[in-house]
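User: Hey, quick favor. My workstation is busy. Could you predict this chain's structure for me?
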Amino acid sequence: MSHVVFFLVPGVHLLDLAGPAQVFSTAADFGHPYTLGYVAERPEVVTAQGLPLVTRLDWPELGPEDLIVVPGWRALTLAEGPRIDEASLRALRDHHARGGTVASVCAGADALGRAGLLDGRRCTTHHDVQDELARRHPRAAVVRDVLYTEDDRVVTSAGIASGIDLALHLVATRHGPAVAARVARDMVVYARRNGHEPQASAMLRHRSHLDDTVHRAQDLLDARFDHPVPLPELAAAVGVSERTLTRLFARATGGLTPLRYQQALRLERAEHLISHGVTVDAAARAVGFEDARMLRRLRARAS
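Assistant: No problem, here it is.
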């Protein structure tokens, strides 16, 4: 069981909170055991949009598999943001020290900075306050104009809706891209990655279309990207001819064939594994390549 605890401050933005909460709630609906909780320093927190929220005051017992998310709040500058007690900042530090993950949306990065969790780590926030975040926390490596960053279990995202992208990334990391794609589709949003792969997600680049047949084919390829999926089998599964599927797929994805799309998924996953210390040969086997030479060719072509 993974707990996702949202730490709320006065003036919290509803979408900063509701977006990630919906992602993990939807993942739970699909059988992944997430329990959501809400903690604040007062029993009622009024959001920036005027909606009062009732929260608990005590932190639940958390383990390394659990996540704390700090949504952002309304303020013209980070310096004008709400006061946060040292006990709350210590809770953030202690969770990370025990092996847990801590995340923020928008101005919530400043709370992580106050807790000392941004020191020496890559981070980001809303473009309006990126420079101020860098000034307030000079030991942080602020990355500008990206959706989110991840560095040593500290995950930060840009403004408002990017919290959804951050949460989808965490779901993909824990459960695979097919689960993240399913959650994203249920929420009618795009699944995407960022960080060391800025704007490069195959799901982002090739899911921004409205062709339901191609989406269904992509769902199957996402779920079985590491196994052979012959074109006749794929076409039969979505109820069209091979020729029709190839034509629709190319039109929807900017010229890709189903095989090329599957290779893009494999390459993306292999790069993730390699960035975490897996050898090229092992990564190739893990994503379904029979020969590591194919992975090396695809990496060379993409560089």
